[in-house]
């Protein structure tokens, strides 16, 4: 009999592991997200209506060659629960797993672009210190593990601490993030992926594009784990 499995089953009995999406107990080899939720998470399809919404957010940024979001974010839904666990409950495994799943999906659907680097959207140092990590770094690392594309948490830096974007209009969001990023390292690739957690108006990601463009990047793929439904 497998002693490791016996110990694992006993541990689950005393300290039950729960799915971060539905709160049901995990069983067997399940980790972080149960099998049922892995299958049923609300994915955004490449040719669906939501994809048109995503494209439209960057219609005035011709350097953005491809945009895509993995899942649909709805209030009190499973995706919100997962991102809450990632950002506020310290569950880093959620970020690594969602990034990995997204990378696998991009490969399976033939949407993975030919790029040289993945760049995560940075947090300001104060916010990162408070949280202990940048959730976008974990998403980028998971995506990199699935695709083999190298990623960097240090190319782009957030040099200004800004108020939250929540509740602001797109114009207010643009003004709020103007000039907040700086490129801190040389970028060898002209074609890059920028990855973040949730796409709302796209103002923060657009500012990342403009900053990286001044550093010599020419073509951008914008990827987010979720699209916020309005």
What does this structure look like?
The structure is a single chain. The protein is built from nine helices and seven strands. The protein is of the alpha/beta class and 230 residues long. The strands form two sheets. The chain has a five-stranded parallel β-sheet with strand order 1-7-6-2-3, sandwiched between helices. The radius of gyration is 18 Å and the shape is globular. 36% of the residues are buried. The model has no long low-confidence stretch (mean pLDDT 89). This is ComF family protein. Belongs to the ComF/GntX family. InterPro entries: ComF/GntX_DNA_util-trans, PRTase-like, PRTase_dom. It comes from Dyadobacter psychrophilus.
Entry keywords:
230 residues; alpha/beta; Rossmann fold; 9 helices; ComF/GntX_DNA_util-trans; PRTase-like; ComF family protein; PRTase_dom
Total helices: the number is: 9
Distance between the termini: 53 Å
CATH architecture of the largest domain: 3-Layer(aba) Sandwich
Mean pLDDT: 89
What is the share of helical residues? 40-55%
Can you tell me the CATH topology of the largest domain? Rossmann fold
Low-confidence stretches: none
**Whole-number total of structural domains:** 2
Short description:
Belongs to the ComF/GntX family. This protein has about 230 residues and is of the alpha/beta class. It has nine helices and seven strands.
Topology, pairings included?
Blueprint: H1 3-14, H2 35-40, H3 49-57, E1 64-73, H4 78-88, H5 92-108, E2 117-120, H6 125-131, H7 135-147, E3 151-152, E4 156-158, H8 170-177, E5 181-183, E6 191-199, H9 203-214, E7 219-228
Parallel strand pairs: 1-7, 2-3, 2-6, 6-7
Antiparallel strand pairs: 4-5
Helix pairs in contact: 4-5, 5-7
